[in-house]
Task: inverse folding
């Protein structure tokens, strides 16, 4: 599960209220990235990609520390989104 791994990476206590926040941010991040790349491909298909999972963690982390993304998305995240746009994910399995 991406949420558990991310809360571990952020050193957040699994019993804290922050875990609920992180879970919501991961969900939001996945939807934002899906819509940025190709919303016709299911999240299940995207989740098979290590780059998508890293991009979702990266965006969720950025949102955790700066909910407004006052400096926008990081260049690394933008690079991952562009890479996902170039991948051939099968929309037919959605």
Result:
């Amino acid at each position: 599960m991406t949420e558990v791994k991310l809360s571990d990476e952020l050193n957040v206590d699994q019993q804290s209220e922050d875990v609920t926040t992180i879970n919501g941010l991961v969900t939001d991040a996945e939807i934002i990235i899906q819509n940025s790349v190709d919303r016709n491909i299911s999240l299940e298909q995207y989740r098979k990609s290590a780059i998508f999972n890293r991009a979702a963690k990266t965006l969720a982390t950025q949102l955790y520390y700066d909910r407004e993304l006052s400096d926008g998305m990081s260049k690394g995240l933008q690079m991952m989104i562009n890479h996902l746009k170039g991948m051939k994910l099968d929309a037919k399995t959605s």
In short: The radius of gyration is 13 Å.
